[in-house]
Amino acid sequence: MNFNIDSSDHKQDQSKKGKLPDADDSPTLKLPCSNLNPRRYQLEVLEVARRRNTIAVLDTGSGKTLIAVMLMKEVGQAIKTDGVKKLIIFLAPTVHLVNQACFFSPSFCFCFPLQFKNIKYLTNFQVEEYYGAKGVDTWNLTTWEKEISNNDVLVMTPQILLDALRKAYLRIEMICLMIIDECHRATGNHPYEFYHQINEKPKIFGMTASPVGKKGVSSTVDCENQISELESILDSRRYTVEDRTEMDRCIPSAKESCRFYDQARSSALSLKPKIEALWFKFDALLSENRSNYKDVDDKFKTLSQRMSKELAKILHCLEDLGILCAYEAVKICHENFSKIEGECEIYRKGYLQCINFVEEVMKIIKESLHHADKNVLDVDFDYSKAEDLGYISPKLLELINLFQSFGESSQVLCLIFVDRIITAKVIERFVKIVPQISHFTVSYLTGNTTSVDALAPNRQKEILDSFRSGKVNILFTTDVLEEGIHVPNCSCVVRFDLPKTVRSYVQSRGRSRQVNSQFVVMGNLEQRNQLFNIIRSERSMTDAAISKDHVSSLRAFTVGKTNAYCVESTGASVTLDSSVGLINRYCEKLPRDKYSCAKPSFASMPVEGGYQCKLILPPNAAFQTIIGPSGKDVRLAKHLACFEACKKLHQMGALNDHLVPFLEDPSEDDHIVKNKESSSGAGTTKRKELHGTANIRALSGAWGDKLNRTKFHAYKFEFTCNIISEIYSGFVLLIESKLDDDVGNVELDLYLVSKIVKASVSSCGQVDLDAEQMMKAKCFHELLFNGLFGRLFGGSKSAGGERKFLLQNDTKSLWSPKHLYLLLPLEKLNDICEGSLQINWCGINSCAAAIEFLRRKISMVTGDFDDSGPITTPHNTSSSEMECEGTNKIHFANCVVDADNIKDMVVLAIHTGKIYCIIEMDSNLSAESPFDGYNEKSKECITFSDYFSKRYGITLRHPGQPLLRLKQGHNPHNLLFNFHEEDAQQKSSQIGSATSKVPAHVHIPPELLCVLHVKRDVLKSLYLLPSLMYRIESLMLSSQLREEIDGQTSKFNIRSSL
Q1: Relative orientation angle of helices 771-789 and 841-860, to the nearest 10 degrees
Q2: The domain that contains 212 carries what CATH number?
Q3: Is the Cβ–Cβ distance between 121 and 139 less than 8 Å?
Q4: Is-above-0.90 flag for pTM?
Q5: What is the domain extent for residue 794?
Q6: Distance between the two ends of the chain, CA-based, in angstroms?
Q7: pLDDT tens figures, 896-924
Q8: Per residue in 615-651, is it b (16+ CB within 10 Å) or e — as a string?
Q9: How far does CA 249 lie from the centroid of its chain?
Q10: How far, in Å, are 337, 457, 544, 545, 957 from residue 480 at the CA level?
């Protein structure tokens, strides 16, 4: 059903307008600007713009850019005369408009495309354009300073200018004139937040054909309020030409008409419930895919959301365009789901499920196309019948009829505006296969959004150029071409989807520039009132724009009182509004591989009076979590958390003084340590690295609380040093899980000072431990690993605290189900794994006995080393007859040992819980000798006996015994990398001989030491275990990931470099 409503009463009749001159009489843009003869209304607006900041409200195609060029030339000449470097900024809202402005030649009533190079020629200025695809976002201060120095006019989008101002690469004081094209967009993220903060503001000249942009019906009062708000934002006042005689005569205007259509047929809509039912079934199937890793679950969530969007596109085409176009939409969806490579098996499975769903939908739609109607697109086919069957919608049929009314002319240039990208793609495909209009060349153009259907910028430019040149006759597009795009030969503009705002209505109508062109608005009968309301709103906007020059209407604009963090040295700033974007950019710059996604996450928590937000950054960020101040809603709380995070990142140095992520890209040579200042040795803080953590299932166990018989898988550790005389004890790893062959059978080198130890791991079957063995094995672990790499006593008597023995009572808290394994010493160095392993139970039993000894000793003393009474060293009844200090026997805390057998013996200090190795007996020193650790400044000289009495409250029973010289333990080092070779290279380059480090030795009375029947080679091996276990744990985790990602355990081997 067609209703052609001529709305020519809104404008003067086209026949009353002057005739356009012939092209041969037209001048070219090569003429100097001074020789161009602007129209009277252009000079009128220019005169106003000279006096004050102005928003020029003029029709599309009226030559607003010519006014801007003349103003730029006058202002530019003035600043060059002053000799002060100032910039002119030309702001265009889109990249297309950065590349193009509209220049109006008043002598010929014709619009010419004006690239930034034409502005340069007409003004004799150095002009450059700036947009994201040019890499501007990554420029630093030096690059911007060079651009500022070399150019006079910078043409850019508002976002580029805003980012440069926030980073303090540009300052608003540098700008003398700002030309703002399509200035009705000057809301949201716009540089006006800087404009209103200074006293010496640049001159503003805004240009728009539609200063009103809100949805819905706008009365004259509504339009006045919106225009006044725009005026206050830009610190400008509107100006429009009241006498339109000259513009109406010179500016081509389109004949407006409306074409209405009926609602879609029920035959097409009947497919919707079938497709939705299939979706519910598929969505449930997709949700069954679960993983233990958040990144994989996030991928599935994204996949489900993407599939939901694709379904929405298909259903939209079915309802709005008909079955044939819905079929095309399904094919496009199927094409978008291209072959997937490099993903894990579980994700590939879900991806294939999506493809199967699309194919099922395609089958449903294909079955609805009756077999008798295979020739549905034949030349003689009745499209009215196709509409009745639901193959095409009444709306699409109306468009086909419009195309047919163009006839056989190939000179037609028709621009069709649609709301959705999928609509543009689908109809473009459909029109190509319609025989009656196949003589037209059809294409589509959309913006470069994140949608899979979007076009790249270079492809957009190619298509637009083809349309301008006439190679493409019919171009479907979204609102990306609504504003400012100039196609002088465009003969018809169609609003296939009804415009939502008066701005959209006015701007799209302005694309029809040819004389006697058409502007067609399509809608169903229910949308008539909506369309007429938009037309009435345009009249209200025109009336409000004419109501100008009232000083009282210009309201003072105040930037919202939001917090701003400003870097004093540069002037760079971040606000609540910009903080979220800055955090996202920081995360994007963090190092990552192609499989990971470095982005922040947020957790909102309700608190009294509002919400608090917890910001969680990626693991390799400068910090991981921060909780922001409370806000009245979730959005404000999120911004507050990001704002606090931005401040902290700058204070920590992660953001530089321009608030740009401080992430250097070092050259290959920078990875080589060249001097000692930049070097770092094993165990230093400079070598600290941040690694993600994951639970290693192979190390978990269930025997923690049990003391019954337990079966383990055994993996033997053997250590062979390149110095033959260096002996290391073997160890065995006992775990409940069986390891893969390439994890449980490995070799690696461990780099110690001036020597290398080769560690080999091999599987040795299974081992059973009874309850008593389990108890003693746990005691060995608890004593030696805490004594060497932790501490056995907590608290400090000197600090006024209570000293507690870590193993005095229940030790369950020392064990975690996630890390339940045993590392036990072996008895024989060359043990062959036949039958049961030769575990060193003698050494293990002595450790268990030492724990019991310390427990009894501490329990005998009231208050756990309290001052309530003196503490004496334990009296060994087995050696009571040997009280003579001259004998060759040494009295230890728990036994008496022949002095000839004490070398390399491992002992535990009962007063500190530290583990030592005996070097020798020092016959020249006893507990009555001066203490070698006294304070020289105090000039106080005390004996060893005095020291232990005052420091620990211990009274020695055998003060005359020789002291023992002991080798202290040390923290475990990273032995997986040869740091010492690097250090040796540095030392060889230094002048003079390097002094070797003196080993740290201490002197302690024997009776304060508990003998552990553990050999020194066991102690030496214990220091190798942290590095070896780190490598094995890495291999275990790799094996675990391999199983989860690939689903197999033997498809590929783990690289030895892991």
Answers
A1: 70
A2: 3.40.50.300
A3: no
A4: no
A5: 697-828+836-860
A6: 72
A7: 999 888 988 999 998 888 999 999 999 89
A8: bebbebbbeeebebebbeebebbbbbbbbbbbbebbe
A9: 55
A10: 26, 12, 27, 25, 94
